């Protein structure tokens, strides 16, 4: 396997040719916030807008999940412009998230908690006006629950269900603030094409999809 040499945050590393900066950083213990990327995907949606980095020679920050490593590349994950963009993206996400960690089954394993700590953003940030979606929790599956109020619309579960498992029970509906992950015709999970494999739970970065206690 051919590799390229690059520098991330002053650390000299080698990464497989063609790899994205996000995976090169994570593989070398350099954290970059991310919610929507999955290693198995050949192209990333880059929809969460959290993985901003600065690259020497580029005028603007770029998303690490879509930027390919290059020989001699110099990456800065802690630049002011990149951090400002990531913090704003996170605060916008939190503005429509109820943030009730104490009562959330994902408490302690939620990517939002990790990202907020990394970026120095309070989970109860008041920078943007809070507008909650107030959607119904779907507990119809015997194995897992889906709380759309905690969904960050990363699309990981949709991709996994369709492309990896070949089921396609999940999808996005509506646009803008009303956008949500749901089933075909917005049916409860138990009445949709969902096979109750609950494998989508493993790729959910928040407490939106959680296993029921047995
Ligand atoms: S991980 Fe790069 S935009 Fe979401």
Describe this structure in words.
21% of the residues lie in helices and 16% in strands. It is built from five helices and nine strands. A five-stranded mixed beta sheet has the order 2-1-5-3-4, with helices on both faces. It is globular and about 55 Å long. The model has no long low-confidence stretch (mean pLDDT 96). It binds FE2/S2 (inorganic) cluster. Residues 34-37, 46-51, 63, 65 line the site of FE2/S2 (inorganic) cluster.
Intertermini distance: 44 Å
Overall structural class, as computed from helix and strand content, comes to alpha+beta
Question: What small molecules does this complex bind?
Answer: FE2/S2 (inorganic) cluster
Task: Characterize the overall form.
Answer: globular
Query: What value does the Rg take, in angstroms?
Result: 18 Å
Number of strands: 9
In summary, what is this structure?
This protein is an alpha+beta fold and 214 residues long. The protein has helices at residues 21-27, 80-95, 111-119, 156-164, 200-203, and strands spanning 3-8, 11-16, 52-55, 62-63, 74-76, 144-146, 170-173, 180-183, 209-211.
How would you describe this structure in keywords?
five-stranded mixed beta sheet; alpha+beta; globular; 214 residues; two-stranded antiparallel ribbon; 21% helix; binds FE2/S2 (inorganic) cluster
Write the layout of secondary structure elements.
Blueprint: E1 3-8, E2 11-16, H1 21-27, E3 52-55, E4 62-63, E5 74-76, H2 80-95, H3 111-119, E6 144-146, H4 156-164, E7 170-173, E8 180-183, H5 200-203, E9 209-211
Parallel strand pairs: 1-5
Antiparallel strand pairs: 1-2, 3-4, 3-5, 6-9, 7-8
Helix pairs in contact: 2-3
Bound molecules: FE2/S2 (inorganic) cluster.
């Amino acid at each position: 396997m051919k590799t390229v040499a690059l520098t991330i945050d002053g650390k000299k590393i080698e990464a497989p040719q063609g790899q994205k900066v996000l995976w090169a950083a994570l593989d070398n213990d350099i954290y970059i916030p991310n919610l929507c990327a999955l290693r198995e995907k050949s192209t990333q949606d880059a929809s969460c807008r959290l993985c901003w980095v600065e690259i020497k020679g580029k005028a603007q920050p770029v998303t690490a999940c879509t930027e390919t490593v290059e020989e001699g590349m110099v990456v800065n994950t802690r630049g002011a412009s990149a951090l400002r963009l990531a913090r704003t993206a996170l605060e916008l996400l939190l503005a429509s998230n109820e943030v009730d960690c104490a009562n959330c089954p994902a408490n302690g394993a939620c990517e939002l908690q990790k990202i907020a700590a990394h970026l120095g953003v309070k989970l109860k940030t008041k920078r943007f006006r809070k507008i909650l979606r107030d959607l119904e929790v779907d507990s119809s599956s015997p194995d897992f629950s889906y709380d759309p109020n905690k969904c960050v619309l990363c699309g990981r579960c949709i991709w996994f269900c369709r492309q990896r498992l070949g089921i396609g029970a999940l999808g996005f509906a509506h646009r803008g603030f009303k956008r949500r992950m749901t089933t075909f015709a917005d049916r409860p999970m138990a009445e949709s094409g969902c096979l109750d494999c609950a494998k989508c739970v493993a790729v959910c970065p928040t407490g939106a999809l959680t296993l029921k206690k047995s």
